[in-house]
Specification:
Length: 545
Amino acid sequence: MASEESRLRGKLMVSKQFLLGRTLCILGSEFCERLAYYSIVSNLVLFFIDNLGFEKGTANVVTLVWSGTCYITPLLGGWVADSLLGRFKTICIFLFVYMVGLIGLTVGTLGNDTVYSSISIISLFVISVGTGGIKPNVVTFGADQFNDLDVSPEEAEEMKQTFFNWFYFTINLGSAISYTGVAYVQQNISFTIGLAIPTAIMGLSAILFFVGYRFYRITPPTGSIIGKGTAIVYYSCFTRSDVKRNNEFWERAKVHPTSITGRPVYSGEEVDNIRSFVKMLPIFGTFIMFWTCYAQMSSIFFTQGTVMDLKLGPDFVLPVASLHIFNALGILVLVPLFDRVLYPFLKSRNIDFGMLRRIGCGFFLAAVGMVYAGLLEVLRLHLFSEGKWFRQKVGLSEVIAVDLSVLAQAPAYFFIAAGEVMSSITGLEFAYSQAPATMRSLVIALFYLTSAAGNYLGSLIVTIVNAATAPNKWIGDDLNHSHMDLYFFLLAGLAFLNFYLYVYVSSKYEIQTPKNEKEYSSEEVVITDDDDKNVRIESESIGSD
């Protein structure tokens, strides 16, 4: 028996040899997919205006609706994966949908009449469905690969934390290339070529993902939890009065409201899963304000940058779409720094810097970023009042910009980037580790939904502020006679209030101790032995002496 256990342990240890291959295929595929996505986002408003003849207002509305949809459709992708197809099959199918949409969008650049406009709009909708099937599942699928290793739960969680860090690194590497190289091609050469590039790269993404099929740990779907979860919440709230008296809130769901014998209808595990999910919701709610701060980079930061000096030398003018590169570069620098230096250093000093503390630090840094942006705007308006301005061409328009380099915005982007590394990456880790195993893709999708809510909240705040301050709007058409500084300070105040709310909410949350998942009763793990023969381990669980 001991020799058999040793043999199986040896096979599991061999599987570690393929961990690098697994993760590289997944990370490489995610890099290509995000590069394709951000290649669309970077100049979408400009594409609508210049290629399809949309008015500016219409172009911005359509872009906002599309961006929000891309963070809502992951709910569909998460449900399909958890309930029907499993993560691997869901990713494969939605990769194909994504490709169809990209091909259609590229075709839509060949003309600007109604037919081509319709093709472009329909293709964007198809792309939003495609990204919705990939976004919540690829990160979860990647983290799943660490569940069959013969290591302690703590070691497995450390490896997953590293995976989440580098997963986010690949996202922003793709973003950096999109907002520089691809954005330049779209603005200065051709939108057709500029969209054909991400289409080809998306094909490469599919190839990279399929290459790793042989080595993946593939978990089958577990069935729909939505209906059962709804019933558990309902029975906990509205069960019979005698059941309410004799049972605490969640335990009520274990007794059917028409049951006479009191025989449990829902298992303790099922009830505990829903209980764990509900307890996560307040934490998720505090992310909305963080994403509102984050959204300023592609909206108000962007607007502020257009009235600053875009010249980076005598002959080079920074493309407006490339301003977002500051955030991506910050993340590309900070992820390796945090993962390889800061976090190990804190651990070596026995300093507790767990998930909840990292998220809180990220929220605080985002608020500081809003303060810096407000102070920068105070300086910009001061320079304008002193007559230190000049005329600058931005796209097809001419604006009055002040004699202050746009590079002065870099610290604001850096604060947001540091906040992302702390909060967003850790938020993914939190969502995965604390979610019930049967709901992970759906919970990740819900986490992404907070980003959409943050974007919409940001739009609502702008609308309310401008309505309240009219006719002297804080964010008016003439930015040199507006008060973006007060707007940023308002956001900073709301962000700090959200930080204190998070401190309270997180103090009530108890982190669930992770378990290393090495159960193979409902799945199979394929590894390769020394003779390069496939070894299949089914329904075996290895204990420790």
